[in-house]
Design goal:
mainly beta
Length: 437
């Protein structure tokens, strides 16, 4: 567990002269949450068709939500109109002081946002859905996320919550059944997950409490819109509470991919995962972690399945030397939310004259030896230009949580690689563990 940033030695000034930008394949392969997936499924990644985040893309009239822009790259924007619009909260203490959208519930009104019909939202046997929500006590069964025009009409799927706060799922016009094995807790934020691969379906609450909901094994292609926070535009039984994030993949995520996204959401919103599901310790306030909550990504192996690359806003991690070879091996990283730029503070010794302001905390589980390639993307991270000489760059590590950074001196020139606008440091398991507190 260690904080890393990138530094530059005195022998070369920071401003580079080449003005052409080149985004490598590694950089653009993952643009989805938790470093999983992209908009099209390029490079065999899962297809992220919808990503609504309370901290991005929300436009309002007063406090009422007009548009919640899709961050997946598929332009599946959610829109609201008139008196049915929910309310935007710019700072919500229930979600780690991040924004949320509030859906009131009254018998006379229906509050929702809707995404226009798109074939990439249904017509599949494979679906992965994540919703971060906080339900309020209710006396009715309410819609959470639904693609239908009315009950059993143009119905692709819907997810609901009962008056006992049990989440349930329905695929097509199949059976409605429990998604999870326990009721949610009123007024408590949680992470809801649903993974479908044909007739195999799994629902989870906070990474555990799983159930296998029975329903149809195929999602039909319907002409209905997708409703956020309600069943449809007709039924006045909308979700009562707040929603901060909605993620849909038109793919069946494997086990490590699902767990990476659950850890991404847990770290970001300070939501406790079920026992054994939380692999990341950098989201704890105070030293030595300093609350590295944001844009968690990583790689890992679980159940014989792997996810092998993660991109955390310009910091890319991947396994090296064939060392990702055991179940429960993970490397996760997230940053501290600092604006990224080149700064000259806390440089320490070693001739370093500038470093990236943003820092990343790395947490590694311990089943076995795990080496990693740590890559800094200059154009994505700091709008920088091509690095010219790999030996002018060093990896910096903060061992104590405060003070000056130290150069990771064991990284030889042969363990550094330049590729376009990226520099990669190959780091051994020993160095990854050297600053464990």
């Amino acid at each position: 567990m260690v904080r890393f940033t990138s530094g530059k030695r005195l022998s070369q000034i920071f401003a580079l002269t080449i003005l052409i930008f080149c985004y490598s394949l590694q950089s653009v392969a993952q643009t989805g949450p938790g470093g999983v997936g992209n908009a099209t499924g390029a490079n065999s990644q899962p297809i992220n068709v919808l990503w609504l985040r309370g901290d991005a893309g929300v436009s309002t009239s007063g406090s009422l939500v007009d548009t919640w822009a899709d961050q997946s790259g598929n332009s599946n924007n959610a829109t609201g109109a008139g008196v049915t619009r929910p309310t935007f909260n710019g700072t919500d203490a229930n979600f780690n002081s991040l924004p949320s959208v509030t859906f009131p519930n009254t018998a006379a009104s229906n509050f929702f946002l809707q995404v226009a019909d798109n074939d990439n939202l249904d017509n599949t046997n494979n679906l992965s859905v994540f919703v971060v929500s906080r339900p309020i006590t209710t006396t009715t069964i309410n819609g959470l996320l639904s693609k239908r025009s009315a009950a059993a009409t143009d119905q692709s799927y819907f997810f609901e919550i009962t008056n006992a706060l049990r989440y349930r799922a329905t695929i097509a016009t199949g059976a409605t059944s429990n998604m999870v094995s326990v009721n949610a807790t009123a007024s408590q934020a949680n992470v809801l997950s649903f993974i479908m691969n044909g007739s195999t379906r799994t629902g989870l609450l906070n990474g555990g409490n799983s159930a296998t909901p029975a329903s149809a094994s195929s999602i039909p292609n319907t002409t209905s819109n997708l409703f956020i926070g309600s069943y449809d535009a007709i039924t006045n039984n909308n979700f009562e509470g707040e929603i901060s994030e909605v993620i849909i993949f038109r793919s069946t995520l494997n086990l490590p991919q699902r767990q990476l996204i659950e850890n991404y959401l847990s770290a970001k919103y300070n939501i406790t995962l079920a026992g054994g599901a939380d692999f990341y310790g950098g989201d704890v306030a105070g030293t030595p972690t300093f609350n590295h909550d944001f844009d968690l990504a990583g790689f890992g192996q679980q159940g014989g399945e792997q996810h092998t690359i993660g991109n955390s806003r310009g910091f890319i991690v991947a396994p090296a030397n064939g060392t990702l070879n055991a179940n429960a091996e993970y490397l996760l990283t997230a940053h501290n939310g600092a604006a990224n730029s080149a700064v000259t503070t806390n440089l320490g010794t070693g001739g370093v004259v500038q470093r990236w302001n943003r820092t990343w905390y790395i947490d590694k589980t311990t089943p076995g030896t795990l080496d990693a390639d740590l890559t800094f993307d200059f154009s994505e991270g700091i709008n920088g230009q091509f690095p010219q000489n790999k030996d002018n760059y060093v990896l910096l590590r903060l061992n104590t949580g405060t003070g000056n950074y130290d150069v990771v001196t064991s990284i030889a020139s042969g363990d550094k690689t330049l590729s376009g606008d990226q520099i990669t440091f190959r780091v051994t398991d020993t160095d990854l563990l050297a600053a464990k507190n």
